[in-house]
Design brief:
Shape: globular
Strand content: under 5%
Order of helices and strands: HHHHH
Number of domains: 1
Distance between the termini: 49 Å
Number of helices: 5
Structural class: mainly alpha
Length: 126
């Protein structure tokens, strides 16, 4: 891969992964986005749980690819958690990574329950 592509990929992953994460948090709110939200939540669950069998629970291929790009650029990430990295990158706060992981998983679980419930409810309303 051409070396000039790496800075672009770093920014791309930062924007894409952040937007994907924000959608996972808020996509259940709007009826028009609920089914797509369910799909992104399932993709996240697949990565975290199933791919996690081989790479460790919570594995995210987006995070893995982004970390590889950052390593190539000579800016390796010291965190194993994308959310921890994002908080540190945006605010410079270095929160306890275990606490960040617990909150991340709790928010994910809540959003997953909400999207499943709302998608089922919307299906039966038709």
């Amino acid at each position: 891969m051409e070396s000039s592509l790496y800075p672009f990929l770093d920014r791309f992953f930062l924007v894409f992964h952040t937007l994907f994460t924000l959608f996972n948090i808020t996509g259940w709110i709007f009826k028009r986005t609920r089914f797509m939200h369910l799909m992104t939540m399932m993709a996240t669950l697949f990565s975290w749980a199933l791919l996690g069998i081989w790479h460790g629970f919570g594995y995210c291929f987006c995070t893995d690819w982004h970390w590889r790009v950052r390593e190539y650029l000579g800016r390796p990430v010291e965190s194993w958690s994308y959310i921890h990295f994002l908080i540190k990158e945006i605010t410079t706060l270095d929160l306890n990574p275990y606490l960040v992981d617990r909150i991340t998983f709790s928010v994910f679980a809540l959003c997953l329950v909400l999207t499943i419930f709302l998608n089922i409810r919307d299906r039966f309303k038709k």
